[in-house]
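Response to reviewer comment R2.3. The reviewers asked that we include at least one raw input/output pair. We reproduce the pair for VOC domain-containing protein here without editing.
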Amino acid sequence: MAVRGLLSFTLEVPDLDPGIRFYSDAGLVADIRGDTAYLRCPDQVRPSIVLVGGAPRKRLHHISLCADELDGMAVAVARNGGKVVASPERFEDGLWVEDPHGMLLQLVDEAPDAPPSATGEAFAINAPGRIVRHGRSAILPKASYAPAKPLRLGHVLVFSPDVLRSVAFVTDALGMGLADRSEDIIAFTCTKQGSDHHVIAFAKSPGVGFHHASFQVNDPDEVGRGGAALLEKAKRGDWGFGRHTIGSNFFHYIQDPWGSWFEYYSDMDHIADYAGWTPTNYSLEDSLASWGPGVPDDFVHNYEADEAPFQQAAMRQTATA
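Raw output as returned:
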């Protein structure tokens, strides 16, 4: 009885067009049906992101997870402070639950996606006494590279008013595992078998909300190239290129049209069997990055819990710049 993987997330947004443009620029493929946009990785059939238009402001609607033994999970949800709810109108069936803070989750009894296959030359680093790349240049002319290609949705980070309670719910009710945390400020949870270091992460905030989605690409070079190219098109918030301490992944974040973030990542720690993993409580100085540029002032701001939408905040920042 456990969550086996992340499928997608759904946002309610005021206008589909900025979201379709942003995520298409990031390398996703859009399928638009009326007031809903389904965005998928190029080599996948299932969408990773669903945008539903016409909302007053951006809001996380739900996260979809694949899981098994849903009947037993329904009992565990109620026992751990959540509740089972009816399927929302227009959405597919499954086990729909609210966590103790009201965040909506859809649980579907299906297998997780197969891991993507790497493309091109393997990323190789020549180091002192360890030459692994022979007779070829590591970097080709810029024109040789195609745009960044997201391979899969790796993880999401959401806001929570009580991070440790959120962790307790997904571990005790949904069968996930605590990978690592930094005090009660941020925590990372994984599945129990064959998992990226984190699948769902939680950051402390006055209310529930969506912080970022992270998409795997082939290697650190593609993280850097993809982030720079998306920033050039989006022309708003940027954090990267850098490397996290917790999870070890290389990252580049670009801010979406509503103040949340899109991350390219590569080289994430892997937890093959959670039984052999020991979580660490990191200091706050290690909670965000090992190295990288300065963190944007609003990187951990929850615009869904703010009285002023992101667009108004962005206008104020522009006016005072």
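The chain has one domain: 3-113+148-320. The chain is about 15% helix and 35% strand. Further pairs are available on request from the corresponding author.
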